[in-house]
Design a protein that fits this description.
Number of domains: 1
Distance between the termini: 29 Å
Number of strands: 0
Oligomer: single chain
Mean pLDDT: 79
Shape: globular
Order of helices and strands: HHHHHHHHHHH
Low-confidence stretches: none
């Protein structure tokens, strides 16, 4: 019990240090200010809240993974000397890397939450039905932050060379955000004569960015814009089982890279 308590206390101390270290960075304020200004402008210009949510969604599902990837890689490499100093102390590796990861992910998630949430409070929209759309938007944004920070840490741990690590991380984001959609759509067109219902669902779940986008579009009830695939997605993701399955998949996308970080950290020779 004492060892478990010591592990928790140590991890929380490292988490707080990483959180405050990133919170003091000017880039965190820029990240927060960007979402604050964007949300204020969109809510001011759009009478239809669903249009503001769609615009925010298009920005969040692309920008959040990119920022999470870049911050994760940069923080790992910039704090490598401090990490090696901690490793020389009688501290478990799990508490060091898990604390750093959670500090970064929480800091970025709170910047997104307050940046988008404050304009929502200012305009007094908590009594409207749009609160559920905004809640889902923020939830998926938080999931994407935790997922891509974990993936960035995993890539960094596997690459000592900073240039390679940064390049692989950006390439992963580019593949997930752009290239994957192109390959997926081409596959649907080439094999359009075959039943593709299950393939479409599986292909969506294999990409957290696409899964987040689909969930928000279905919540806004504009899946008709997606044509046949929209009907398939609505038939599954529009149900309670679909939302539950999507949440589980996003949790798996978060948890699996975290376990990979801990496994690699325990076996890596620093």
């Amino acid at each position: 019990m004492q060892l478990l308590y010591y592990w928790k206390v140590t991890m929380l101390k490292i988490l707080k240090y990483s959180f405050y270290d990133l919170a003091r960075s000017r880039w965190s304020y820029i990240y927060f200010s960007f979402y604050l200004i964007l949300a204020l402008v969109l809510l001011f210009l759009n009478n239809d809240l669903s249009k503001a949510v769609i615009t925010l969604m298009n920005v969040i599902v692309i920008l959040v993974p990119l920022i999470g990837t870049i911050f994760g890689v940069m923080y790992y490499y910039n704090s490598r000397e401090f990490t090696e100093l901690l490793l020389a102390q009688p501290i478990k590796r799990n508490s060091i890397f898990l604390g750093q990861y959670l500090g970064i992910a929480l800091s970025l998630s709170l910047s997104l939450l307050f940046g988008v949430g404050i304009p929502f409070v200012i305009y007094g929209l908590f009594d409207s039905a749009a609160i559920w759309d905004f809640s889902l938007l923020l939830l998926t944004g938080a999931f994407l932050t935790f997922i891509f920070v974990a993936l960035a840490f995993t890539i960094s741990l596997n690459n000592e060379n900073r240039i390679k690590g940064f390049g692989y991380a950006v390439l992963l984001w580019l593949f997930m955000a752009v290239i994957y959609d192109g390959i997926f759509l081409m596959s649907l067109v080439i094999f359009e004569e075959y039943p593709l219902d299950k393939l479409s669902l599986l292909g969506t779940m294999l990409n957290p960015i696409d899964l987040s986008r689909i969930l928000i579009l279905l919540k806004l009830d504009i899946s008709a814009l997606l044509g046949y695939t929209g009907a398939v997605f609505k038939q599954f993701f529009g149900t309670h089982l679909g939302y539950l399955a999507s949440t589980v998949v996003l949790c798996l996308w978060t948890v699996i890279p975290i376990f990979r970080i801990l496994h690699k950290a325990n076996n890596k020779d620093f």
